[in-house]
Amino acid sequence: MAMNRIAIIGGGPGGLMLARLLQRYGRSPMVFERDSHADERPQGGSLDLHSRTGQYAMRRAGLESRFAAAARPENQGDRLYDADGTLLFDRDEPTDDRPEIDRTALRKILLESLLPDTIRWGCRVAGITPDDDGFVLAGDGWTERFDVVIGADGAWSSVRPLLSDARPAYEGVTLVEFGFDVARHPAIDRLTGSGKMFAVGYNRAVITQRNGFGHIRGYVGLRLAEATAREWQASSPERLRQALRASFTGWAPMLREVIETGDVIDVRPLYALPVGHQWQSRAGLTLLGDAAHLMSPFSGEGVNLALADAVDLAEALTSNDGWTSVTLYEGAIFGRAATAAKGAAQGLNGAFSPEGVAPVLKHYRTRVTDA
Ligand SMILES: Cc1cc2nc3c(=O)[nH]c(=O)nc-3n(C[C@H](O)[C@H](O)[C@H](O)COP(=O)(O)OP(=O)(O)OC[C@H]3O[C@@H](n4cnc5c(N)ncnc54)[C@H](O)[C@@H]3O)c2cc1C
């Protein structure tokens, strides 16, 4: 089969990394991205890149010095409180090699590494139809043919239904995301420490995370029916605050400050594909990143896997073994994603449990002992 014309659906970290690597290998992929430009929507909070996956991909892409210039190794601290505001764990000088980087900064580095006109902005792919030689992509008023189509289009991938019947399922937990400037919110600044702060109580958590440029993100999470989460997505910030106040009655005032003073950014019900999601290989079509293995953020692996997938897929697509290499790529990502997805499900259930903070404290202490 021909593998010359390659379409990547989705300009998130995984799709952009794949485009960068393919260009380094002399190919000319085209990226279709539904956002109309790079700054159309907030990209989300800070991400830590792990040495064997995310950082490895940056090295393979020749972007390690750009990453080092934008990364914040000093922001890897961990704090854990209970719902009364008692500090149970505080590690401000971690030995992990997991520097943080703002999502917007990571996307900028990847975008600037691409040749001009690699990305078709404002092109949401709505249909993918097989023909004799490949696939025809269709969007609003356009169609275009490709030999190979890569689904790098995240949780609600338009490519995945051609390979698998699996759909993301709601995990029973919703996060309400808040934004803070440290200059205006000194109490949140003090609460957060140098990196991430978790406060955990009965089926609930308050999280803050230091971002670059004097920003902090907050996440207030709780177990919630999916229909209620949908209603919350349509609620005003004041109604959301009222609902959260009611759910966090009795929590320490310094933790409730997150609810009272933050700027509401988004309501994020958490979805995941089944742990161990796989598909039968189909020539010309494959997936990477969240499209292949969406999981909750509680393993901190999602973006790292997306970047590592891109490294392996770029090699497979440019090898001399045709689609066989891509089939091997798929086998490899099924295994490593299953391990991470299991960890993410355990992390989520540990953080939102009737046992409150105890399982999380145990996890933190084990991590320190294992380090
Ligand atoms: C609250 C939260 C916190 C997180 N924290 C972490 C963390 O700390 N560490 C970590 O490793 N991971 C984290 N993650 C997970 C991480 O964000 C994802 O795993 C990662 O973004 C996946 O990258 P991706 O490129 O596969 O998909 P995405 O980042 O979802 O990118 C997909 C792209 O495809 C585009 N798109 C979608 N549909 C179409 C279409 N039909 N046509 C064209 N374009 C389309 C989208 O606009 C988007 O740009 C977190 C996730 C959440 C929700």
Automatic annotation (TrEMBL):
Keywords: FAD, Flavoprotein, Monooxygenase, Oxidoreductase
Keyword Cytoplasm listed: no
Domain of life the protein comes from: Bacteria
Keyword NADP: no
Domain FAD-binding residues, every copy: 6-318
Protein name: NAD(P)-binding protein
Taxonomic source organism: Acetobacter musti
